[in-house]
Amino acid sequence: VQDILDDYNFIAITERMDESLVVMKMLLNLTTKDILYTRARSSGGWSNGPPERPCVYIPPSFLTPGMKRYFASPEWQQTIRGDMLLYEAANASLDRTIQALGQDEFQRHLNALREGLKLAQEHCKGRVVTQCNEGGESIPFVNNTC
């Protein structure tokens, strides 16, 4: 795990995306505008894919009772042990980086991002153009999207 952490200058945590983006912003001296995003895709819809298949369906996520049992099993926990060690180490690294940058300063930047995300969501509502329509057909590139 330490070798992996040593190989990377920064590892973002998906479950802590806003915090990860703010740390990256502060480390790279970016602006809030540089890290703003909108949610254009979700499970149960179409997303962009490779050139030969530009629209790919993302099925809704689900867990069957059997899947839940397996994921709770010692066998699965042993299988993902290394992944969990890396995940925990990356989370701890993110926490240490936040402390090193200064908790108050980090919180100020995080609040600015969250305010920017709210404004972007309001401004872009109904204006985000994806690469695929609801029928899974590719839409030509549009340059005037949010």
TrEMBL record:
Entry's transmembrane regions: none
Gene Ontology MF term list: galactosylceramide sulfotransferase activity
Subcellular locations according to the entry: Golgi apparatus membrane
The UniProt record lists the keyword ATP-binding: no
Record Gene3D superfamilies: P-loop containing nucleotide triphosphate hydrolases
Membrane topology: Single-pass type II membrane protein
A Gene Ontology BP annotation from the UniProt entry: glycolipid biosynthetic process
InterPro entries tied to this protein: Gal-3-0_sulfotransfrase, P-loop_NTPase
Cellular component, GO annotation: Golgi membrane
Entry keyword set: Glycoprotein, Golgi apparatus, Membrane, Signal-anchor, Transferase, Transmembrane, Transmembrane helix
Family, as annotated: Belongs to the galactose-3-O-sulfotransferase family.
Name of protein: Uncharacterized protein
Protein species of origin: Entomoneis paludosa
